[in-house]
Automatic annotation (TrEMBL):
Keyword Transferase listed: yes
Alphabetical list of SUPFAM superfamilies matching this protein: PLP-dependent transferases (SSF53383)
Source organism: Pseudonocardia hydrocarbonoxydans
Family, similarity comment: Belongs to the group II decarboxylase family.
GO molecular function, one term: aromatic-L-amino-acid decarboxylase activity
Alphabetized UniProt keyword annotations: Aminotransferase, Decarboxylase, Lyase, Pyridoxal phosphate, Transferase
Cofactor: pyridoxal 5'-phosphate
Cross-referenced Pfam families: Pyridoxal_deC
GO terms under biological process: carboxylic acid metabolic process
Post-translational modification N6-(pyridoxal phosphate)lysine, affected residues: K300
InterPro entries in UniProt: Aromatic_deC (IPR010977), PyrdxlP-dep_de-COase (IPR002129), PyrdxlP-dep_Trfase (IPR015424), PyrdxlP-dep_Trfase_major (IPR015421), PyrdxlP-dep_Trfase_small (IPR015422)
The protein's name: Aspartate aminotransferase family protein
Length: 479
């Protein structure tokens, strides 16, 4: 069959290539059709069947269509159904269909977003989405986002720029001379900073343990009255969204404290930064715009695919100082109208993550992102209420999309989590809170609604009742 607008390609390889793309998109549709009807965690038999991948490297190439089929038929059933509505594990979003569509289309484009000259379309869409993100989140004028692989790297990118800026203020050029012999700077973190923040600090040479740790309160918020008395320049790492409770640090108090010193305020907002898009959460986010840099993820709450982190800073020149590279074949000097991603990010060549972010923001609009945040937070409250009524203890103030619960004690809670995972109707995992295991439920998918809250409560209480057949069955709430 000949398509008039797309005459047959003259190269022999073109048509089989298109057949592969069509087959892959049919497989993707087939996956989307079935994923809702199955367990959230894959069936153990499907996981066992992954042994089919254990083949030696073929000496000669195998059929590419058969290769896609193997991936689809053996790999698909062994996936975790995080695109469904009932995955509450970690802080993992789903991925919006328009993000999946944009990813599939732009994978066929194979654009390198390092430089505008390599991809005018990636550069233009970046410019648009950069403005949209700063507008949506209400960050200060002049703030610029850059795309990296996730919040770990977004934190590291911001901290590297902060390190170089603070040390430049002390007359030290880190890019030229490294950190050996540099004047010391104090790094301040909250006691409940995310585990990966240590990794980011280590990566940029500031040290995982060479930090001043400020105690946190019972929700995991940094206690501003316990900030150190330091006088010298400080690099403060605050947090929007504690990974268990969803709590936000007191940004105004931290910014006031820093205003009496010199330094840099960075905020890890891997998921919590999106609360800025919901006007109903202004109390939580007060003072958040006073930071120098912010890290977030697209692949969590915004529901784009992996891997998409976003580093924002109001000091773009500092990012440039840290990440610029020169080579004879690279275009000379950047102008204000020509933003070059490779000179502002840890990557050189890079995937154009902006396409998916742009597609989701265009599809949802300002109101849609606000609704996504507000709805998932409402679902979290409904789950907390349902579980509390069923006899579990809710351990956190549910201010965002995170719910932390315990059934009796740590060991009972562990047994409950295992039973819920085995049950397959929903999936959520454990964490440690106040020295004991707790069940952590994160509501981060664009698909999750109040029906799913009810289903999650049913699944957990049903499993809880079977753990305690002797009269501990969750009863009807008293009032
Ligand atoms: C998830 C998370 C990170 C790490 O993000 P990645 O995208 O996995 O690199 C950092 N900080 C917080 C608070 C997180 O929730």
């Amino acid at each position: 069959m000949t398509d008039e607008r797309h005459p047959p390609a003259t190269t022999a390889g073109a048509d089989p290539a298109r057949r592969l793309l069509r087959a892959a998109s049919a497989m993707a549709v087939g996956y989307a059709d079935t994923v809702d009807g199955r367990r959230v965690a894959p069936d153990p038999a499907a996981v066992a069947a992954l042994a089919a991948f254990d083949e030696p490297l073929p000496e000669t190439g195998l059929d590419p269509l058969a290769t896609l089929r193997l991936l689809d038929e053996v790999g698909g059933p062994a996936t975790v159904a995080s695109t469904g509505a009932r995955y509450f594990g970690f802080v993992t979003g789903g991925s919006h269909p328009v993000a999946q569509g944009a990813a599939a289309l732009t994978a066929a484009w194979d654009q390198n977003a390092a430089l505008p000259v390599m991809s005018p379309v990636a550069a233009r869409v970046y410019d648009v989405v950069a403005g949209w993100l700063v507008d949506l989140l209400g960050l200060p004028a002049g703030t610029r986002p850059v795309f990296v692989s996730g919040a770990t790297v977004a934190n590291a990118a911001c901290l590297a720029a902060a390190r170089d800026a603070v040390l430049a203020g002390l007359g030290w050029d880190v890019q030229s001379d490294g950190l050996f012999g540099a004047p010391p700077i104090e790094v301040v973190v909250g006691e409940r900073a995310h585990s990966t923040l240590s990794k980011s600090l280590g990566l940029v040479g500031l040290g995982r343990d060479r930090v001043t740790v400020v105690p946190a309160d019972d929700q995991g918020r940094l206690r501003a009255e316990r900030l150190p008395r330091s006088t010298g320049p400080v690099l403060v790492c605050a947090q929007a969204g504690e990974v268990n409770t969803g709590a936000f640090d007191p940004f105004d108090a931290i910014a006031d404290w820093l205003a009496e010193r010199s330094g840099w305020l960075h905020v890890d907002g891997a998921f919590g930064l999106w609360a800025l898009a919901d006007p109903g959460r202004a109390g939580l986010t007060a003072g958040l715009d006073r930071a120098d840099s912010w890290a977030t993820d697209g692949h969590k709450w915004l529901n784009v695919g992996y891997d998409c982190g976003i580093a924002f800073t109001r000091h773009t020149a500092d990012l440039h100082r840290t990440f610029t590279a020169a080579a004879g074949y690279l275009p000379a000097a950047t102008g204000p109208d020509r933003f070059e991603a490779m000179h502002h990010t840890p990557q050189s060549s890079q995937r154009a993550r902006q396409f998916e972010v742009w597609a989701v923001l265009r599809t949802l609009g300002r109101a849609g992102v606000a609704e996504l945040v507000a709805r998932t937070c409402t679902v979290a409250v409904a789950i907390a209420d349902g579980l509390r009524a069923g006899g579990l203890t809710v351990l956190n103030d549910v201010v965002l999309n995170q719910v932390l619960v315990r059934l009796h004690d740590g060991p009972t809670t562990e047994a409950l989590i295992a039973a819920v995972q085995d049950d397959g109707r929903i999936w959520c995992g454990p964490t440690r809170w106040a020295g004991e295991t707790a069940m952590r439920i994160s509501v981060s998918s664009w698909r999750t609604g109040l029906d799913d809250a009810a289903a999650a409560v049913d699944a957990v209480l049903d499993r809880a009742s079977r753990l305690h057949p002797a009269g501990r069955a969750p009863g009807v709430p008293g009032t």
